[in-house]
Structure formats: C-alpha cells, structure tokens
TrEMBL record:
This is Cell division protein FtsW. GO terms for molecular function: lipid-linked peptidoglycan transporter activity. It is a multi-pass membrane protein. Keywords: Cell cycle, Cell division, Cell shape, Membrane, Transmembrane, Transmembrane helix. It comes from the Bacteria. InterPro entries: FtsW/RodA (IPR001182). It is found in: Membrane. GO terms for biological process: cell division; regulation of cell shape. It comes from Streptomyces roseus. GO terms for cellular component: cell division site; plasma membrane. Coiled coil: none annotated. The chain crosses the membrane at residues 23-40, 52-69, 81-99, 123-141, 150-167, 179-208, 228-245, 251-268, 275-296, 352-373, 394-418, 424-446. Residues 453-474 are annotated as: Disordered.
C-alpha cells in the first residue's frame, strides 16, 4: 500500500539581511574613537577630556540614526560600509581635536588672524549634516537606476561645478589652488560633489556606447587600438581634466576625473589598450602642465627634493615635515597626542592629517587605516560584481575607483610617493565638503548593494502549478 501526496512549487528563500551584524560592528565603531579621545586627553592634559561623554553620545546617536535608516529602507545592504565609514569619521574627529590642542597652531592662528577657533566642533556639525544627507539619499533614491535618466544633465551639472571656482567673486584662491567657492561665509569645494555627479554621466554614457568603444581597427605592438572616431570621448575628458589643471591649479581633481573615466572605460570594454592610452595621455598632460604652471611646478620640485628648497618654498617645507613625521613614528608610533606633526601648520588637519596618523600611530596605524579604506573599496567592487544591471555595475565601480584614486593621491602626496595634489583624506580631514560628499557616496553604494542583494520576489501561486507526485511506501 502506498500514499500519494501532491506538492506545489516552493517560494523564494529569504536571505539574511545582516543588519544585526552591522549593529554589532557599529558598537565597536563608536567605542574605538571614544577610547582614542580619552587617550588624547590623558596624553596632553593628564586627565580625561571634559567633552568625552558629549562626543561619544553624539557619535552614538548619529550612528544609531544611520543604522535605523539602513535597517528600514535598505534592509539587504552591505553590512560593512556604514560601520567602516563611522569608524573613520569618528577617528577623524579625534585627530582634528588632537590638533586643536596644539599650542603651536593656536599661537600661529592668533598671530595671523587675531583669534583661534577649534575645528573639531565644526567637524561634528558637518558630520551631523553628512548623516542627514546620507539618510536623504536612502530615502529619496529608491532605485539607483533612476539616475540613468539624468546622464547628460549630470554632465552639464559636473561642468558647472568645475567652473564655479574660477568665477571672479565666487571662487577663492587657497594656497595657490582655485578649488573653493565662498557662499555666505562658508567655503565649499565643488569638486568633491562633482566626482559623484560625473560618475553618473560616465556610467550612463559607457553603458550605451561600450560596444562601439570595444571595437578595434588595428593592432599595434600587441595592443588593439580603437577606431579614430571612438577616441573622441576620451580626448574630450582628457582636455577637460587639463583645463581643470590649468585654470584651477588642481592636480588632484584632474587625476581623479581622468583616472575614474579610464577605469570605467576599461571595465565597460575589457580593452587593455584603453588603460595604456590613458596612462600615456595622463603622463603627457601632467608633464606639459607641470613644466608651465608655476603652482604645479613648485609641487613637482618639492616632490623631487623637498630638503633642497626647504627654507625657500612652503610646499617643500610641508613635504619635508611630513616625511620627518612618518620617519619619527616608526613601527608603533609615538602615541596619541605625543607627536609634532603640527609643525606642518594649518595643513596639518586637512591635506596632511595622515602625517599625524603616521607619527602618532606608526606604521601599524597607517596600515590599519589603509586597510579600512581598502575594505570600503573592496565592498564597492563586490557591490559592482553583484549588481544585476549594467548601469549599477559601472556606477558602483566608478564610485569605488574614484574613492581609491583619492586615497592614493592623498596618501602618496604626503608620503612623498607622488607630488602633492591638495585633496583631502576622506572622512579624516577637516572640512564639510569632503565629509558630506563621501557620506553621500557611501549612501549610494549602500543603495546599489541593497538592490543587488535583495532576493527576487516569490512567484504568485497558480492553480495550474506543476504537480509533483511523491510515492511513499506504506
């Protein structure tokens, strides 16, 4: 005797959201900066800083708000991006507060401006605004694919953002670079936001034109060279990057935009020839501008031998002090609050804040920070691989590539590996534009990862579903 049962199709399997993992990691991301804050106070003043509880509570509240928004509106997002961003931002505030305690920087500010104001409280305010922008991205951007509609609008918007700093009366010349605009007493760096806007254009354009750009007309020295008419887009972007370099004296933004385009072009076409062409064009453009633009030429001179012009050029003095900071840090560093990176001057909490990490935390601390940055880049690339649409893949890889290039040019500049670029270290450096733009970048990556990891909806039940006959022995 046997029993016959009928079964229907099984629904979709629910995937874990990893939100509890994110919450646990956020606890560590808040506790570690609090301990660092206490360590700085004990090292400099010999007692716990009075603002430690307020700082820790504020960071915990901001992290909790961000986590609630992700849990509610991006349930399946990557669980590492938010904790790593919180940890870097929190440690950045500690580094800025540590430099605020420097008597040298306080005296320097009083001599030049007549007063001294701490940067750490402003950085916490910028962090709160950045978390609000992060939440707004997740609330308003329900699907990243809607950005594809604004491909050419984003191109125009990015050009406007790049042109703003050179407009008389609006742009501000800071230490030779015209990358800032002044609005109602606040300074804004449009290039930080332009890298996100222009990534939208690159992703939308390359998604449509990738087949044409992948075609090759001839083979030369083992490389497949593209057709002449297909070189138009890369020549246009190359010219735009050179114009930014010439008119704004901004080597970092120029390298960032052109490098991001080449990376996305290679991912879209899988042609190694684009990488070679891009490197040749970037080296040629940098060589020409470096030999003609005085500001860029001074930075190249400081990079080649900073100690030869140490007493003659401010760029040489800053690079020399930075190199000595890394050298004096050794393997484990001098300890929180025990370094002398404040000798660099006002740039110590912006361009050269990574020098403080190298001196006070040593090689171990530098590698730890680079590992955290590397994890953000890796999660961004993983998100690009998991994305189900070509626009999302290119957009995620473009944002990750831009973030990686910015880390490289900033860290390489302060370590003497490449000439200084004037860009800021993401999440660490003082400034509202940088922290706002990078939290928006994290928010977009979280949205793309949520879409990529979200399980497909279960099919609707149908009375005509296939019946499976199972025979069980009696």
């Amino acid at each position: 005797m046997s029993v016959v049962t009928n079964t229907t199709t099984i629904g979709a399997i629910e995937l874990p959201s990893r939100r509890n993992t994110e919450l646990l990691l956020l606890v560590f991301a808040v506790v570690i900066p609090i301990f660092a804050y206490a360590n700085v106070g004990l090292s400099i003043h010999g007692k716990l800083p009075p603002g430690m509880i307020a700082y820790g509570g504020g960071l915990a509240v901001l992290a909790g708000i961000a986590h609630f928004v992700v849990r509610r509106y991006a349930k399946y997002a990557d669980p590492l991006l938010l904790p790593i961003g919180t940890l870097l931002n929190g440690l950045g505030c500690v580094l800025i507060w540590r430099l605020d305690q420097s008597q040298r920087l306080q005296n320097l500010a009083k001599r030049q401006f007549g007063h001294f104001s701490e940067s750490a409280p402003r950085q916490m305010m910028y962090t709160a605004l950045a978390i609000a922008l992060f939440a707004a991205v997740l609330l308003l951007l329900k699907d990243h694919r809607t950005l594809q509609r604004f491909t050419y609008i984003s191109m125009a918007a990015s050009l406007v953002l790049l042109i703003l700093p050179v407009i008389p009366g609006l742009g501000a010349d800071v230490f030779g670079a015209k990358i800032w605009i002044s609005v109602a007493g606040f300074s804004i760096q449009p290039g930080e936001f332009a890298k996100i806007v222009i990534a939208i254009f690159f992703a939308g354009y390359l998604m449509v034109k990738r087949d044409a750009l992948a075609l090759a007309s001839r083979r030369f020295m083992g490389l497949y060279l593209p057709r002449g008419r297909d070189l138009g887009p890369i020549l246009m972007i190359w010219a735009m990057s050179l114009l930014v370099l010439v008119f704004e004296n901004d080597l970092g933004t120029s390298l960032l935009f052109f490098g991001m385009f080449v990376i996305m072009l290679y991912v879209a076409t899988e042609r190694t020839s684009w990488i070679v062409i891009g490197l040749v064009m970037s080296v040629a453009g940098a060589a020409v501008v470096g030999a003609t633009a005085s500001h860029v030429k001074a930075r190249v001179t400081a990079w080649l031998d900073p100690f030869a012009c140490y007493t003659k050029s401010g760029a040489c003095e800053q690079v020399g002090q930075s190199i000595m900071s890394f050298g004096s840090g050794g393997v484990l560093g001098t300890g929180w609050g025990q370094g002398n990176s404040d000798l660099i001057g006002f740039a110590a909490n912006s361009d050269f804040i990574f020098s403080t990490v190298g001196e006070e935390l040593g090689l171990a601390g530098v590698m730890a920070f680079l590992l955290l940055y590397g994890l953000i880049i890796e999660r961004g690339v993983r998100t690009a691989l998991a994305a189900r649409d070509p626009f999302g893949k290119l957009f995620a890889i473009g944002l990750s590539g831009a973030f990686a290039l910015q880390i490289f040019v900033v860290a390489g500049g302060v370590m003497g590996l490449i000439p200084l670029t004037g860009m800021t270290m993401p999440f660490l450096a003082s400034g509202g534009s940088s922290v706002l733009a990078n939290w928006a970048l994290i928010g977009i990556l979280i949205r793309i990862s949520d879409t990529a990891r979200r399980p497909a909806p279960a099919p609707a039940p149908s009375p005509d579903s296939e019946m499976t006959q199972v025979v069980r022995p009696s």
